[in-house]
Amino acid sequence: MADTGTDRVDILNLSGTIVANVGATELGNPTDVTTDSNGRIIVADNTDDRIEIFDSSGNHLTFVGSSGSGDGQFSNPVSVNVDSNDRIIVADAANRDVQIFDSSGNFLTTFGTAGTGDGQFTSPSGLTVDSNDRIIVADLVNNNVQVFSISDSSKGESSGGGIQKNTKQHQHQVGIGKQITSL
Question: Which residues on neighbouring strands pair with residue 54, listed in sequence order?
């Protein structure tokens, strides 16, 4: 669980008891956390404008990104997840985009622009990836959820034809949950 109050990630057991902490010295303001197929802990840190990566024991390995608005740069990364290929997918609220990196943290692609139309964001606030590797993005200000498909799995390119905008509006949508099947 990303804990913005203590600037760390808390690891909980199934009873909800904290059993470990990660990143107390490395994180500025963790806003989201996920794990990949290797058990690495991947954290969105919106104060430091980067994605921090820890091994399954909580040891800091590396980080992805830097401050800015270009490829591989963040200005408020608020949500992070991985797909079935362990590509790291990040929603950036201030840059109003979603960026995709390979499992080593190398930039692959970005999608989204500022606005209220299909494929546009005003404040992407949460994302998840479904079992078909579709990227589902919630937008806090636009009050909607959009679904994106990755057309080229080797390059991580966004498919314009795969963009679908949910016609239902959701008040104050800030995150999307993902079912955890194992710990």
Answer: 41, 60
Encoding tokens for residue 77? 């990364």
Q: Give the global pTM.
A: 0.83
Tokens of 66: 């830097």
Residue 54: name the closest of 35, 67, 37 by CA: 35
Alpha-carbon gap, residue 104 to 125, rounded angstroms: 24
Query: Which residue type does 137 have?
Result: V
Nearest-10 Cα torsion for 104, 41, 81, 8: -130
In this predicted structure, what is the pLDDT of residue 59? 94
- Cβ of 175: how many Cβ atoms within 10 Å? 16
DSSP per position, 117-176: STTEES-EEEEEE-TT--EEEEETTTTEEEEE-EEETTTTEE-GGG-EE-SS--TT----
Looking at domain 2-165, what is its CATH homologous superfamily?
Answer: TolB, C-terminal domain (2.120.10.30)
Q: What is the pLDDT of residues 145-173, one digit of tens each?
A: 899 987 643 334 444 433 344 434 444 44
Q: Looking at residues 129-150, what average pLDDT do you find? A: 90
